[in-house]
Amino acid sequence: QVQFVESGGGLVQPGGSLRLSCVASRSIFRFLGMGWYRQAPGKQRELVADITSSGSTNYQDSVKGRFTISRDNAKKTGYLQMNSLKPEDTAVYFCNTVASPGSWGQGTQVTVSS
């Protein structure tokens, strides 16, 4: 099982940008698809973007054109570049594998507010 530690969240005004990072606990990370998930207050956790081991990406419609997922296998690190942020992007963001997600980390809080 691979575990992740997320960072990079914060408070940002609408239209602003943030870059989230997550570091995996094991080098097997390079062989696994990974995704960024988010959970807003009172809502279920949802997958917003994922990237395969070879770099193919998929995005939830609500973030297409604004978010970019990437990975650096040598650093065991995944990234989520978030631009043109909206108040509805406010949530705790997590990363995890896509197939059979393991235990969840603490995530990183993203708050979009003026």
List the helices and strands and how they pair.
Elements: E1 4-7, E2 10-12, E3 18-24, E4 34-39, E5 46-51, E6 57-59, E7 67-72, E8 77-82, E9 91-97, E10 108-112
Parallel strand pairs: 2-10
Antiparallel strand pairs: 1-3, 3-8, 4-5, 4-9, 5-6, 7-8, 9-10
Key phrases:
4-stranded antiparallel beta sheet; 10 strands; mainly beta; 6-stranded mixed beta sheet
What does this molecule look like?
There is one protein chain. A hairpin with a 4-residue loop joins strand 7 (67-72) and strand 8. The strands form two sheets. This protein has a six-stranded mixed beta sheet, with no helix packed on it. A four-stranded antiparallel beta sheet has the order 1-3-8-7, with no helix packed on it. It is 0% helix and 46% strand. With 114 residues, the chain is mainly β. The radius of gyration is 13 Å and the shape is globular. The protein has strands at residues 4-7, 10-12, 18-24, 34-39, 46-51, 57-59, 67-72, 77-82, 91-97, 108-112. The mean pLDDT is 96. It has no helices and ten strands.
Quick gist of this model?
By secondary structure, this protein is mostly beta strands.
Mean pLDDT: 96
Report the biggest beta sheet as strand number plus sense, adding barrel if it closes: 6 strands, mixed
Percentage of helical residues?
Answer: under 10%
Query: How large a portion of the residues is in β-strands, by DSSP E?
Result: over 45%
Structural class: mainly beta
Alpha-carbon distance between the two ends: 39 Å
Radius of gyration: 13 Å
Strand order, biggest sheet?
2-10-9-4-5-6
Please tell me what the overall shape is. Answer: globular
